[in-house]
What does this fold into?
Amino acid sequence: MEVNPIIQNVLAPPVLFFLIGAISIFFKSDLEIPAPLPKLFSLYLLLAIGFKGGIEIQKSGFTDQVLPTLGAAILMSLIIPIIGFFILRYKFDVFNSAAIAAAYGSISAVTFISAESFLESQSIDFDGFMVGALALMESPAIIVGLLIVKFAGPQDRPNARKMHLSSILHESFLNGSVYLLLSSLVVGFLTAFSNPAAITKMEPFTGQLFYGAECFFLLDMGIVAAQRLPRLKNAGSFLIGFAIFMPLFNSLIGVFVAKFLSLGPGNALLFVVLCASASYLAVPAAMRMTVPEAKSSYYISTTLGLTFPFNIVLGIPIYMSLVNKIIPITPL
It folds into this structure.
């Protein structure tokens, strides 16, 4: 593995702002981001990447590479939580195993954005249709997690906690982040199809502001991740090991799937990052509401306090190295 890409990644402004946020907690700085701003920037990032992704999908069309890639993305988000569930069952009950497994089967949009920034810093091309894979991978893992609880969990749950198919689908596709991402994807697609001139008008908002907003959002994420770290003591060594092992294991599966799909290095890295990332927004929101028996400190502290910083600081360059080894660039 080359060291240089790791150093370059650590010195990228978004990662540095993340580290600055985390360090502020360790040194007890009074740095504080007002509560509404991180939510606003989170919604902005989802809107921007969804809009740009919709434009790129319209431009590229549903080609022989786009459709299999999107299909493989959905398949991975169905398989990964099942694998995670069986691993976690060695130590945890059905509720906690299903909730944690769903978090690792879903994705992190900010990790995906960080991977895009890494590719741009390395001058490696990638296609916008990968945002479609991002949008499609968030919900299936939630569905799998809730179905596991429904069929593998105790059948004597109170009626108020018994889940029906309609409520499962509602939580999976209509939670705020998924809804905004999918909606923005459709808006971008329709705009590129019917009114391309409007894309230019949106460019200052969805393009030029994006990088700065990402840095600011990661500053807040660094603060939140550092605040979550002490709670990992309660998670135990098994779950801490799982938080590092699972992304690496999923990345290995992802890179072989990317090779099977004949994805180029840039698209392959984004696919691998989607497989290796974990949700700390959509899945926790759904699980808190529908599976209150699961401890939120488990699936939030591990995904946000450990897996997320591992991925954006070390994971992305490691996955790029893995892609370069298993999917070497074919000379023209």
